[in-house]
Amino acid sequence: MTNLAARRLLLVHAHPDDEAIGTGATMAHYARAGAQVTLVTCTLGEEGEIHVPALAGLAADAADQLGGYRIAELAAACAALGVSDHRFLGGAGRYRDSGMMGLVTNDHPRAFWQADLDEAAGHLVEIMREVRPQVLVTYDPNGFYGHPDHIQAHRVAMRAAELATAEGFGPAKIYWTAMPKSVLEAGMAAFGESSDNPFAGIDRFDDLPFGTPDAEIAARIDGTDQHAAKEASMRAHATQIPASSWLYSIAGNFGGEFMGVEYYTLAAGERGPGSGPYGWEDDLFAGLAPEAVGPAAVAGADALAESGAR
């Protein structure tokens, strides 16, 4: 409890590279501003595709060494974001990448999808006890797009917040990553005529497995000055994000808005002051005193119950 930064942000992600794609600008923004940014990654991402042909032998169905390689990729990505505090949940390799929903890899004995909820949450509580985050960021109950490890990361994070709250050091605010429907609609329009269209085959943004009505968004974090750091962190994950990825097309053509701005819903805690038609916060710590360390209280418990995490 000594020498804690005035602002402390904890992010819980499922695999290496999730932090860069989903919250990289936010992490870089707060790290540069002097906040304590702690990243917890739940698996090594052993089941990921490999986009570097020379490294194909690392695959799960070959040497099964991709997870170890991705530890180094994650370290480089965190360095690009200016984040020095990174942990693997329960230690590197305790939980294994479960693969996509419905695959046999979901049943691996170390698959994160099979993890005991309270045991996994207990590992996260120990980190919370040390860093005392005021703000927790993770996925929504569907893991943003339905991956089992993302869903489990949500459950573990919410259960850990509940347990930490019971001990008196739970986060004051909990956010879930989100994408406003207006941004998705603009993205579909921008890429409509592109040969590298990530929305190909999708006629309506309502057909996507994610997307949040703008009125339900609570925070818009403007990290446009950090979008280069976010891009660098993504490039560090070379096995997972090919150099030809449409994500880099976004970086090149729409870097500020599409790469540097990230959105969140508020799952627990009191909403701070905001602006615009929906009162979006521009700071995840909005409304908190510098040393506010308190429970997300009843709201956190309610969010947990609604997510079916028990």
Automatic annotation (TrEMBL):
Binds 1 zinc ion per subunit. Its cofactor is Zn(2+). SUPFAM superfamilies: LmbE-like. Zn(2+) binds at H15, D18, H150. It catalyses: 1D-myo-inositol 2-acetamido-2-deoxy-alpha-D-glucopyranoside + H2O = 1D-myo-inositol 2-amino-2-deoxy-alpha-D-glucopyranoside + acetate. Its EC number is 3.5.1.103. One of its GO terms (biological process) is mycothiol biosynthetic process. GO terms for molecular function: N-acetylglucosaminylinositol deacetylase activity; zinc ion binding. Keywords: Hydrolase, Metal-binding, Zinc. InterPro entries: GlcNAc_PI_deacetylase-related (IPR003737), LmbE-like_dom_sf (IPR024078), Mycothiol_biosynthesis_MshB (IPR017810). The keyword Zinc applies. Catalyzes the deacetylation of 1D-myo-inositol 2-acetamido-2-deoxy-alpha-D-glucopyranoside (GlcNAc-Ins) in the mycothiol biosynthesis pathway. Belongs to the MshB deacetylase family. This is 1D-myo-inositol 2-acetamido-2-deoxy-alpha-D-glucopyranoside deacetylase. It comes from Micromonospora pisi. The lineage of its organism: Bacteria, Bacillati, Actinomycetota, Actinomycetes, Micromonosporales.
